[in-house]
Amino acid sequence: MNELKVLGTERIAGFKFTGIEGGFGEDKKSMLVKDIAMIHGSTVKRINELINRNQNRFKKEVDIIDFLGRSERLRDFAEKHGFITSNRTEHVYLLSERGYFKLLKILEDDTAWDIYDQLVDGYFNMRQALDTSRLSPELQMFKGLFDSMAKQELETKRIDHKLDNISEIVGTSTIDWRQGTTRLIQRIAQYQGGGEAYKNVRNGIYAEIDKRAGVSLKTRLTNKRRRMADEGISKSKRDKLNKVDVIQDDKKLIEIYMAIVKEYAIKNNVWEKDY
Fold it and tell me: How far apart are the C-alpha atoms of 252 and 73, rounded to whole Å?
């Protein structure tokens, strides 16, 4: 087993997590289950349960490492870096890229495949920067020039990307407004760290609608469910209703909802997670 090394905080697709290298091969990146759970809006307990139920799919030290297995060295590493949060913790899993991919096939949620390519390209396949301090002064000068040119080109692309995204946000159509606003809210939540952020963003938007429109979406939702009950519609269908269904009944609320979502998206710089 290669030596493990904590790289520090990584940020990919709006998510912050602990970067780890080694364990599965030289320069190979890996991820803790606690970070995977955060990215997928789940819990460590649930992800651990999925892994434990599918142990036959994961190869030890190829797909997965348990810091609380039989190795004292691994346990010491986990304790040193604060990976063990309780004396009752049974497993602290670390997954390789291959192990993460296998977990995605078990999870099968929307977030899984939305960010998979970004995690592979922006994290698993990235390598630590080379130490250039020992280069000759001439080579360091050329490197500085190339870095400066690359930075300028990237900034130009970032600005173009920003303008394209603002145009996309502003141009979100009223025809497919539910799909368009959901996509924007997902990007806002990812920018804010994922997990509970999705729920918080939606609640913030609903509160702003109540304020601007002078309504109570909660009350309207309750009334809508009561009317459906009077019409004999099943409880399961009534329970599936949400505040967006209430918004859909009122053209004025649709316009207000779309305006607020667009404002949130621009305010949160949703394009920056790609650059």
Answer: 62
For 214-266, write each residue's pLDDT tens digit. 999 999 999 999 999 999 999 999 999 999 999 999 999 998 998 898 888 88
The structure tokens listed for 56 are: 């036959």
Domain boundaries, the chain: 5-124, 138-274
Q: Which of 131, 149, 128, 152 has its CA nearest to residue 140?
A: 131
Q: How far is CA 216 from CA 5, 114, 148, 222, in A?
A: 52, 33, 53, 10
Choices 3.30.300, 2.40.50, 3.10.260, 2.40.30: CATH for 5-124: 3.10.260
Give φ, ψ of 193 to 5 degrees: 115, 0
> CA–CA separation, 3 vs 71, rounded Å?
13
- Is residue 107 within 8 A of residue 40, CB to CB? The reply is yes
Give the pairing of strands 64-66 and 5-12. unpaired
Closest residue by Cα to residue 189 from 245, 261, 244: 261
Tens digits of per-residue pLDDT, 121-140? 666 665 544 456 666 776 66
Comparing C-alpha atoms, which of 205, 229, 226, 228 is closest to residue 217? Answer: 205
Q: Which one of 16-20, 25-29, 212-216, 260-264 scores highest in mean pLDDT? A: 212-216
- Report yes or no: 251 and 170 within 8 Å, Cβ to Cβ: no
Contacts of 77 (CB under 8 A, 6+ apart): 4, 67, 83
Pair of tokens at residue 92: 């602290």
- How large is the average pLDDT for residues 99-115? 72
Say how many residues make up the chain: 275
- List Cα–Cα distances, 210 to 94, 150, 181, in angstroms: 44, 47, 17
